[in-house]
Amino acid sequence: MSKSIVVTGGTKGIGKAIIERFAAEGFSIYTCARSQVGLDELRNELENRFPGVSLFTMRADLSQKSDVIAFAEAVKKQAIPDVLVNNTGVFLPGSIHSEPEGNFELLMQTNLYSAYYLTRAFTAEMIARKSGHIFSIGSIAGLTAYANGGSYAISKWAMLGFTKCLRQELKDYQIKVTSVMPGATFTDSWQGADIPESRFMKASDVAEAVWSAYNLSPYSVVEEIVIRPQLGDL
């Protein structure tokens, strides 16, 4: 039986790159996104590149708790994942004192609450099985304060704290937990920016780091992965 991976927000950027990396290794893929069109395009691409890949997709808005639970229940009818990647996220720039009303709630619900509720949906079974690897896709914005970070940065600092706590809770059950904190990566979040592509990291490099961390022996875990562009932060 093939191993399985759940990746939220899997139609673009880092999430898509992680799916492609694990699909190449024969993993069964479970993913969700808000756009059905994006999910259909992902299916067509994966079926062409990786014939025979097992792919489950579901349209879901993970800023809504009900959608998080519905996605988790749909996955659990088929598998308890060997790997869970909490990747869903949204970026909205702004300062705490002046960003639009509602930014804080939307960013926390999407970037943090989705990971919290989805992780809780699978941990009981992972604990009983005594295996699994949970990755949280954070950001260097969760390590370094900067102007115009606003609620996005707050949500990523909280994501790091969530993941650190999870690591301590699950280590005795042989479940690995890893925080991934990328710097500027060439994804749709930077669309329209007047910055050359060469200044960014590649999403595939983040995916390769996740794959490498997953492949350590049971005796070791990479707790934190910090990846930055070679020329430094933007």
Automatic annotation (TrEMBL):
Protein name as catalogued: Oxidoreductase
Translocase listed as a keyword: no
Domain of life: Bacteria
Keyword Oxidoreductase on entry: yes
CDD domains: SDR_c
Sequence similarity: Belongs to the short-chain dehydrogenases/reductases (SDR) family.
The organism of origin for this protein: Mariniradius saccharolyticus AK6
Gene Ontology terms for molecular function: oxidoreductase activity
